[in-house]
């Protein structure tokens, strides 16, 4: 379990993923060396990964939410094949063991079935597929991240740290140059890779690395994400809550759910249930409390459905193997 120093380190990274260890140590009340050592221990355990990823808007990508119902005896191989695909941003097996939930990044004009089944063999193991478009993600950087593990930083510190995070550009970002590939590959493995190490990977000078990073960040081409495994932090029960909300209330309800400490992600989607929220809990009693207090107290919800997560498969650029976040090449 995390102590208060670990919690402060995690929250500082969520606010500013490339924050120097010296600054993290100041926030956590420890030395720079202790902050670095604690971070590396969390990373080695597979609890945490910091990633630098190309903004999908660069390539005009939309995100599609898919639910694939399969024959129970064939769901494992298909789930693993989906999770390995680079266009799959997130995947898990739902309770019951016969449904795969995944988020696909694909151009908006792609046929929905093509977006899901491209490069996969046609198989009788698939019984039913539903694919909906993710319309909007709620919550601003530094506020939407899951903090149920214990947010031990005060609001002013969070504000100051978030101000140190690169601000996204309002206009669509330009695509990276071909020569950026080694730089971006290194950041996809570890978003906190030092300028010195990035210089070694690219063959550039450290000064050129710094200039290029600043350009990619300020344009919104390069984004950083902090991935956590709630299971390692005392929250083994995970669910997707599907909500039906009238359009007049959608923005308000979405923003309200984004402020819930139990919710790492909430987004508006097409389909009968037009809002989905990922919810993490300690146990069934904790989840029941969330449904009967936080969800029940929110006006504008006309109906809901719950899908429990049976086994995590992938988060962003990380596969989940043996309960650890790992780069795809290591799976």
From TrEMBL:
One annotated GO biological process: response to amino acid
Alphabetized GO MF terms: sequence-specific DNA binding
Cellular component, GO annotation: cytosol
Superkingdom of the source species: Bacteria
Domain HTH asnC-type per the UniProt entry, residue ranges: 183-236
Keyword Transit peptide attached: no
PROSITE patterns in the record: HTH_ASNC_2
DNA-binding as UniProt keyword: yes
Stretches assigned to coiled coil: none
Keyword entries, A-Z: DNA-binding, Transcription, Transcription regulation
Pfam families (UniProt xref): AsnC_trans_reg, HTH_24, HTH_AsnC-type
Full protein name: AsnC family transcriptional regulator
Provenance organism: Streptomyces fuscichromogenes
Gene: asnC
């Amino acid at each position: 379990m995390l102590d208060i120093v670990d919690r402060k380190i995690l929250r500082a990274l969520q606010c500013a993923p490339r924050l120097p260890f010296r600054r993290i140590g100041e926030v956590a009340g420890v030395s720079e060396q202790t902050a670095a050592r604690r971070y590396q221990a969390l990373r080695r355990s597979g609890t945490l990964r910091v990633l630098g990823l190309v903004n999908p808007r660069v390539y005009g990508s939309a995100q599609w939410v898919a639910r694939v119902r399969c024959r129970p005896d064939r769901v494992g191989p298909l789930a693993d094949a989906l999770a390995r695909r680079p266009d799959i941003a997130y995947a898990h097996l739902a309770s019951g063991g016969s449904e795969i939930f995944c988020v696909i990044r694909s151009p908006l004009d792609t046929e929905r079935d093509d977006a899901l089944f491209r490069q996969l063999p046609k198989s009788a193991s698939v019984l039913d597929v539903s694919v909906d478009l993710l319309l909007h993600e709620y919550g601003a950087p530094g506020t939407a991240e899951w903090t149920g593990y214990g947010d031990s930083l005060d609001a002013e510190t969070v504000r100051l740290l978030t101000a140190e995070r690169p601000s996204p550009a309002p206009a669509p970002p330009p695509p990276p140059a071909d020569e950026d590939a080694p730089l971006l590959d290194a950041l996809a493995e570890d978003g906190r890779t030092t300028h010195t190490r990035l210089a070694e990977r690219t063959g550039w000078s450290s000064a050129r690395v710094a200039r290029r990073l600043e350009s990619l960040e300020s344009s919104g081409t390069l984004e950083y994400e902090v991935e956590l495994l709630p299971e390692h932090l005392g929250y083994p029960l995970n669910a997707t809550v599907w909500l039906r909300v009238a359009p007049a209330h959608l923005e308000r309800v979405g923003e309200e759910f984004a402020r819930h400490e139990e919710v790492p992600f909430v987004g508006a989607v097409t389909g009968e249930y037009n809002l989905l929220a990922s919810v993490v809990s300690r146990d069934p009693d904790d989840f029941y409390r969330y449904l009967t207090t936080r969800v029940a107290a929110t006006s504008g919800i006309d109906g809901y459905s719950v899908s429990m997560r049976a086994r995590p498969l992938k988060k962003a650029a990380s596969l989940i193997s043996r309960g650890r976040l790992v780069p795809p090449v290591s799976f």
